[in-house]
Design brief:
Blueprint: H1 2-14, E1 37-41, E2 48-56, H2 60-67, E3 68-69, E4 80-85, E5 92-101, E6 112-119, H3 121-132, E7 137-139, H4 144-151, H5 157-168, H6 172-182, H7 185-210, H8 220-239, H9 244-250, E8 252-257, H10 264-272, E9 290-296, E10 299-305, H11 315-330, E11 333-339, H12 346-356, E12 370-376, E13 395-397, H13 406-421, H14 434-452, H15 456-474, H16 480-487
Helix pairs in contact: 1-7, 5-6, 7-8, 7-15, 8-14, 14-15
Length: 494
């Protein structure tokens, strides 16, 4: 009986038989053009001290012998100084360090070679042309090295995405999150969930095949139900992360709003460290929404400067106010700016009543947004501070002119953005792409069908569908179109 049960486990682990163009185990069709050997400049363009040129494929050893003297391959994974020469003319090109990585112990899983040459444009161009003359070599396409690593089981699809995010990381938080994903935390989590479904599916299949067998363990279906319930709780927790991972990857939307002449544009320029917005004492200077990506206290943000909220005096300004109000509704975080020396003005009072107070949780209009109230122009205040008669929610004092209060504002921003984006150093791995969220939701929906199924065969099929969604997160069963979209974000040489 146990032999039959293990057969069912193996069958469930394989899942439905469908074409898999590119899998972690490399059992599907290989990446496009993987029979050829590719080469590319893997370091940055332009003049530099050292440039790295890589090859990957079966002709990498031949390329290394063709360009170097002596012609023998260097010891594996040890840097050797060699003279590089053009294989056609014998003309010396450079003295360079070369490295030999025989497959499968390489980044791509194939034979690989690296040429660490001097970074002058003429040297790099000469070595690339020399490699192009070696039979069996061709220039690499964008992301082709990483795609080959995926095809040969060196990286899962989530690890590939983590590598892409690491290359594009611009803030400390993005770097930390990308490193965690590159280390395979999300991949390991999804594989653990898939194994849970495999066991549950094996229990259901065993009951279908051996339901009348006295030797079958008691409560085998109850065990499957318990495993599914636990998995539903875990999936629900990750889906309730309010898109924190996606915000961390692409940036939280921070909108600067307030009445005219409160200092919104000055604050945007101060936070972005460049003159993004025109600053003028004339009301209505900013009429459209100006956006700039910034690093706020280590977190990525898209900072939006908006028109002053008031009754527009002309059609252009009225349209700017309408756009500002719409952008406020879409904001992840609002920086509400008031003139600390003019809190009693009608424009300041109206902004407090219509934008600041309604943004808090439990407000009459149902809005619940994160908001920081900033009282600018603190350098104009008397020693006693803001007008004590003003009924204000908690606020931060700032002078965009002198910079006083900026450290306090940045610390407050760090706390708000950490809550919005999550702490990339602790807690479970975050979902950084809509693709992850789509498949986790699909898995959760399939588990709902499992619980409602009246027939065991339908229940088993629901578990197979749920498991398929999890394997697609890490790269199993993906289509070529999805893979093309993911790898097109990579640069040539990576």
């Amino acid at each position: 009986m146990w032999r039959g049960l293990w057969t069912l486990v193996a069958r469930a682990a394989r899942g439905p038989r469908s074409p898999r163009p590119c899998t972690r185990q490399g059992s599907g069709a290989p990446a496009p053009g993987s029979g050829a050997t590719v080469f590319a400049l893997s370091s940055g363009q332009g003049r530099c001290g050292i440039a790295v040129i890589r090859t990957s494929g079966p002709a990498s050893g031949q390329a290394l012998r063709s360009l170097t003297a002596p012609r023998d391959l260097p010891p594996a994974r040890k840097a050797c100084l060699r003279l590089l020469s053009d294989p056609r003319s014998g003309e010396p090109l450079d003295r360079a360090l070369v490295l030999w990585f025989p497959g499968p112990q390489s980044f791509t899983g194939e034979d690989c070679a690296e040429f660490h040459v001097h970074g002058g444009p003429a040297v790099v161009s000469g070595v690339l042309q020399a490699l192009g003359s070696v039979p069996g070599l061709r220039p690499a396409e964008a992301g082709e090295f990483t795609r080959r690593a995926f095809a040969h089981g060196k990286l899962s699809l989530t690890e590939v995405e983590g590598l892409a995010d690491l290359i594009h990381a611009e803030t400390e938080a993005q770097r930390r999150q990308a490193l965690r994903q590159l280390d395979g935390e999300l991949s390991h989590l999804c594989r653990g969930w898939a194994e849970t479904l495999t066991k549950a599916l094996a229990h259901v299949e065993a009951y279908i095949d051996f339901g009348e067998d006295d030797n079958l363990e008691e409560g085998i279906l109850d065990r499957a139900d318990s495993e599914v319930r636990e998995l539903e709780v875990a999936l629900g927790a990750h889906l309730r992360d309010a898109r924190r991972g996606q915000r961390l990857r692409s940036g939280a939307h921070v909108v600067v709003a307030g009445p005219p002449n409160a200092g919104k544009s000055s604050l945007v320029n101060l936070l972005s460290r460049k003159p993004v917005s025109i600053v003028s004492p004339e009301p209505g200077t900013t009429r459209d929404v100006l956006e700039t990506p910034v690093d706020l206290a280590g977190f990525p943000a898209l900072l939006s400067d908006t028109a002053g909220l008031r009754e527009g005096v002309g059609p252009v300004e009225q349209e700017g106010v309408r756009r500002a109000q719409k952008r406020l509704e879409q904001a992840d975080l609002i920086l509400a700016v008031l003139d600390a020396s003019d809190l009693a003005s009608p424009s300041s009072c109206n902004f407090l009543d219509t934008a600041v107070i309604p943004a808090g949780a439990g407000s009459p209009n149902g809005r619940s947004q994160r908001l920081l109230l900033v009282l600018n122009k603190s350098d104009l205040l008397p020693a006693g501070g803001p007008d004590p008669s003003a009924d204000l929610p908690p606020y931060l004092l700032l002078s965009c002119l002198t910079g006083e209060g900026l450290d306090g504002l940045l610390e407050a921003l760090r706390k708000e953005l950490a809550a919005l984006c999550g702490d990339p150093s602790t807690g479970p791995p975050l979902l950084t792409r809509a693709r992850h969220q789509h498949h986790l939701q699909g898995c959760l929906d399939a588990l709902g069908h499992y619980k409602q199924a009246k027939d065991l065969a339908l229940a088993a099929e629901a578990l197979r569908v749920a498991r398929g969604h999890l394997t697609r997160i890490t790269g199993g069963g993906g289509t070529e179109e999805i893979l093309d979209i993911i790898f097109q974000d990579f640069c040539v040489g990576k």
